[in-house]
Write a structure and sequence with these properties.
The complex is a heterodimer of chains A (196) and B (227). Chain A has 196 residues and is mostly helical. Chain A has seven helices and no strands. Chain A is 67% helix and 0% strand. With 227 residues, chain B is of the alpha+beta class. Chain B has one domain: Glutaredoxin. The chains are: A mainly alpha (196), B alpha+beta (227).
């Protein structure tokens, strides 16, 4: 399958998730609200969008890890002469691991999105539990820290003069997740949280 | 039979198990479908990039080690291009001494004209300027050393560069005077040699085989028609 077409498998859910967590996402789910009542509430919609974003973020991070492993074998996946060449970015041994522990960025992304998924999924299952505010605050903290990692990785891309479209999708998922966690954290303890 | 469920059970446990299952399935798929090779300078690892301007006898241009690699190469295939990377300093006495041996090896294993019936072995020198007193190098010194130019005014380890033993070298010399490559490859001293397979994997390194000659390593590892 063409790598850019395959990217759509991750990019579309990420964008849909991002739109759902935004305040104007309500209009997107109106046609489905009758069949899926949870989407009819602000909390339900943001939870759904956030779960979708975290799953897409984890999936694209796993794909990135897979690509870096394939490149290390000597193969290629999405090499191109244009500025969009994820092989050049993910395959760069100097930049494709974190500078402290030497762990691949794809693996860090996958683990982080799985943690975020756990935080949001458990909160969505029991939204009035006493630990939910803590989970939401942790989600905000983790995704906010993600902005520093994104800044570093974008700096690397500038250095290489190449853009990794798979990495950018993961960055977008982090932005969506940050907005979602932030909105849920602010919504918690308001009347809107328990609106039917 | 009526089942009793604990409605008060903490949903966090269920969520954790499900997410962990998802994570491990992802890791298992990657483990089952790939065989990652680490990038490094130990035998069996993928050689890191070697960057800088190189001199090929006529001028300086950008060097790209990756241009030598063939990812489809398979063990035993004699059509692949092997690479020997030598890390050296033109002011290191032992590098000056071994220049003759390197010239002979580069000539003997370059092609079949000299009776060599094995895969082509390309030689590359990455020339550093070690942070040792008296080791002051330059591109002019590198050229004088490589081409064995007599009375150039350049001094290599205290003698005229043109008086070094052996013939002139005809392989690329990379400018690593800023020690970037040497640090990236974690080279501890000069001269150091790496024999690299056509797929970019390090087959032999002098650091891991103290006392073993580069020539013996080439003869034992590089495939030959007669073998």
């Amino acid at each position: 399958m063409d790598p850019n077409l395959q990217l759509m498998l991750y990019l579309i859910p990420t964008i849909v998730g991002l739109l759902l967590v935004l305040p104007f996402g309500r209009s997107l789910v109106t046609p489905f609200a009758e069949s899926y009542p949870s989407l009819g509430t602000e909390r339900g919609r943001v939870f759904f969008g956030l779960i979708l974003t975290c799953i897409a973020g984890a999936a694209v991070s796993f794909q990135t890890l897979w690509i870096s492993s394939k490149i290390s074998e000597g193969g290629n996946f999405c090499s191109a002469d244009t500025v969009f060449s994820c092989d050049d970015v993910i395959g760069n041994a100097e930049y494709n691991v974190d500078p402290i522990f030497g762990l691949p960025w794809g693996g860090i992304g996958a683990a982080t999105f799985c943690i975020l998924l756990y935080l949001v999924y458990s909160s969505s299952k029991e939204p009035n539990a006493s630990w939910v505010p803590l989970h939401l605050r942790l989600g905000v903290l983790i995704t906010f820290s993600g902005f520093f990692v994104i800044a570093l990785l974008v700096y690397y891309e500038f250095q290489m003069e190449k853009i990794c479209q798979y990495c950018t999708t993961a960055h977008l998922a982090n932005i969506g997740a940050f907005i979602g966690f932030l909105r849920l954290m602010r919504m918690d303890d308001t009347k809107e949280w328990n609106d039917a | 039979m009526k089942h009793m469920y604990d409605e008060e059970a903490d949903v966090r446990t269920t969520a954790l198990i499900r997410v962990m299952a998802l994570f491990f399935v992802g890791i298992m798929i990657i483990a089952a479908t790939t065989s990652p090779i680490a990038t490094g300078t130990k035998e069996g690892e993928r050689a890191p990039a070697l960057e800088g301007k190189f001199y090929n006898g006529s001028g300086w241009s950008d060097f790209n080690l990756e241009s030598y690699w063939d990812p489809t190469w398979e063990e035993g295939d004699i059509t692949g291009q092997w690479v020997v990377v030598e890390f050296m300093d033109t002011d290191c006495p032992y590098c000056v001494q071994s220049a003759e041996e390197i010239a002979i090896n580069a000539n003997d294993f370059a092609n079949s004209d000299n009776g060599w019936d094995g895969a082509t072995v390309n030689f590359i020198a990455s020339v550093a300027e070690l942070n040792i007193q008296g080791h002051d190098s330059s591109r002019a010194e590198m050229i004088a050393f490589r081409n064995k130019i007599a009375d150039s005014g350049e001094s290599c380890a205290g003698s005229d560069c043109g008086s070094r033993p052996g013939a002139a070298h005809n392989f690329p010399y990379i400018d690593d005077l800023d020690l970037d490559n040497m640090q990236k490859w974690k080279v501890s001293g000069t001269p150091s040699y790496y024999l690299i397979q056509p797929d970019g994997i390090i087959a032999w390194s002098s650091a891991e085989h103290q006392g073993e000659e580069l020539r013996d390593a080439i003869l034992s590892l590089v495939p030959r028609e007669s073998a």
